[in-house]
Amino acid sequence: DKQTHFLLITVFIVHHLADINWASFMPQSLEGLSGSCLMIPCTFSINISFDQYLIDNCVAIWNTGGPFGQTVFNSGLTGQSTNGNILQGNLTGNLRAKNCTTVFHTMLPQDKNTYYFRVQCNNKLKYSFPTNATIITITDSLPKPAITPPPVEVEEGDPVRLECSAVAPCPLLPPALTWTPAIGDVEENQQSASVSSVLNFTASRLYNGQRLQCSAFYRRQAGHSDLQYENNLTLRILYPPNNTSVSHSGPVIEGTSVNLTCNTDANPAVDEFTWYKVDGGQVVAVGFHALLSTNVSEADSRFFCQVSNRYGSQNSSTTQIDVQCESECDRNTDGKYPPSQHDNTSVSVDPSGPVPDGSSVTLTCTSVANPAAANFSWFRVAGGEKELISSERDFTFNVTKLSHNQYVCKALNVHGDDDSELVSLDVTCEDHLSVVEFKHLLFPTSLTKHARKGQLSSVSQLLHRFCLLHAVSALVP
């Protein structure tokens, strides 16, 4: 009848409302690390009429395989009785606050299963929650830490914030996070199932291309070795040109081509080059590529380059090309040239003018060349033959009237050599001829007598002393 039908509907609704009040809440699945602990975050709700039965003697029970399956943990077992638990652990939640969070210790791969929660008190409150169980998987490895945001481009000077996070299935042994290299300030944060480390720094060109690594170090429980996992990203910092300079191959011969290269550090790469030639007070653009090939002279030997990208521009310093000559250059320039003509190499005599017979004289070789002459050679010229007598710039020796030698200097640099003109010395007599000595010259017998007395050994020695070789030829037929 209608009354019976109404009663059945009422009972069904009341029963359904009661079922709605009974529920457990936990993750659908959890992944743990073998040899470490695992926490199951858990809360529950019961019919309000049973709140009075939720007292201190209530215990948390975990079953596997189903709500009424094998009991693997009972929080009510203490002391030696805990050996009765298949899994060792601790109820960390407060059941009176309807928190059933539990930590299991030293989980192994064989502990993989579906876990159901049951609340059991020494009164009417005994309930196994049939839904919202959690599937636990135990592995020998964990995912590497995550770095956010993913690699991006940032401008130099901008603040950068990077976060590294790693799972922490065991709250008793959370992983230690480390940034390498440590280029900024670090903030640590630990949550129930994860830990994070935030790195803050200011973007610098010094960090461009830097490989930044976050490491997660996991300690495990007794009998299991520790593990470490890494993740990394490469920083990309955007900045204007820096350290701009000009390089070239070195000294060049005047009138020949030289290759100039504009070097710089920029990110993104430079997209515009301009070469300038400095001519007195004027600056003239002469090229628009990284490499400039141009003929140079002493007048056209100063250059600089300008580079730019979308973040800025920079000029190099002015470079002076070392211009040298293959043949004689204009003396009014600072060009590089060899001592290639006679008027480029000369000899000076010290003392200048007539030189007393038997005295010392110094010949100095001077050469106008660029680079300066590096080697000098002195030659004595007699009878059309040359004899090498010195390799020094200054040549010092004693002169004699009997010598009719001439001297020449050769100067040498990397571009060539040159000989000076021949130099003759004006040698004068040391003393005047006395009457007695002149008499001896006229009468050889007297000379012989002198020689016997040890005063002069020969006529030639006497003549040598007084520079009279030419006089003898006139006096003695």
Automatic annotation (TrEMBL):
It comes from the Eukaryota. Residues 143-234, 241-324, 339-428 form the Ig-like domain. Residues 329-356 are annotated as: Disordered. Keywords: Signal. The keyword Signal applies. Residues 1-23 form the signal peptide. SUPFAM superfamilies: Immunoglobulin (SSF48726). This is Ig-like domain-containing protein. It comes from Gasterosteus aculeatus aculeatus (three-spined stickleback).
